[in-house]
Amino acid sequence: MSHYLPLSRVARLVGQSRSALQRLIHDGQLATFDGMVDMNELLRVFPDVQWEEDGEFRRVEEIKANAFRKRVLDRVLPDKEVLAERLYEVGKEFAAAKALLLHYDEVFRFLADKLEDVAESGGATTQEAVAGVKHWLKHELDAAPQEAERAEQLLAQESVMRILSATVTVLPSGHEFFVEGNDTILEAALRAGIPLNYGCSNGNCGDCKVRLVSGQVKKVHPHDYVLKETEKAGGALLMCSYTAVSDVVIEAGVAGADDMPHQEIPTRVKAVEALNEQIVALHLTAPRSQRLRFLAGQRVILEAGGLRGEYPIASCPCEDRHIELHVRRDNRPFSRRVFEEMRKEDVVRVEGPAGTFVIKLDSRRPVVFVAWGEGFAPVKSLIQHAMSLEVAETMHLYWVDGDTGHYQDNLCRAWADAYDNFFYTPLSAGAGSANLVQAILAAHPDMTRCDLYAAAPEGLLTPLREAALSRRLSPLGWHDEVLSSASASISIASP
User: What's phi and psi for 408, nearest 5 deg?
Assistant: First the structure.
């Protein structure tokens, strides 16, 4: 009897990213059925993985070691009622498997008796044949299958994972994420960087209403929004009020750039981090009740002390209430305030978001990122979002220094070291536009299956787009953000 596992859980079990598994599937090295992986197929493709050495068993040991720290338990372990229901569901499966084994044992006893009857009623030839069959059966039953021990470890590991967390699959997009600890489905989706539609997030508006296709959920927060009886019968629920007990499938819309509502949020400065003499990272924290809704790559307007400035967001939507922006030193009043006067706990109002320079959430293709100077800020947001969702097959970042330098060069090199599918190439603006285009596209002779995201001045975007299209990049695969700041005004003409 086959045992199927969702791809997101397989990734955790084998210590691989989903994008790496997607490549194996694309290359025909890993077979799937309706997006699920059979246990025997998993054992075949990953013969060297030691399930007990990492993953959820290690997490259990960490929980035990930190049991006195309540916040750790609250973050990792689900509510006791949810935990009890998950244990009950696993127990039911164990009982069903044991009952099936007992049934097979009875069938074997019946078969043995029938074979004895056949042997007694037959001649010497029949008795010899029956003895041969019985010997073969005994040998097969006594001999443990070659993969029995690893299969046992795999099943034990997966059972622990299912108790600590549940997998949510979103239709029709196909996104998957884990619900851990006491998170609601909505909180878990946002933490994973999946922008499902929602409004107030406290049960009043009904904007986070979805349809439960399969699985078991539990209401963990009350809500004032009234669902119609027909909606309840059809499986409707509010993501902000329910958590997943078992692996579930929901039917939900994934928000796009045009779905982001205009927001005005008071934030506080967490830190003003100097990245170099030209750039600081402004770290803001949104209120608990007013998390900023945005997509990676979008821009916001900042206001402090009556001074305003517009900047792209450099952080990932998956970073909860944290908002990071890269502010360039120039003569604009807001920039001067950030560099000269802004301090921790200062209030900064955030308005937005705006912009359509956002990641394609349904793409599984290789991605090329190009950043110029502080154009790295929106590109950084896109990269972190792509990493969070594990949507890209491969990612190549080309960063042209402009006059701000590669001010987070170590971060990019750390990504390249940590991710097998991420590659980083720093470039110098002094090379000229023609040479820059050649350097960027040198490793991409055929861009049929690629997406290209570029935040740069028009002087680089125009020749880069023409060259990429000539290499069969689809027009739908081109995404740009034109820089209009001071750094974009310097010459990039070919020397």
Answer: -130, 45
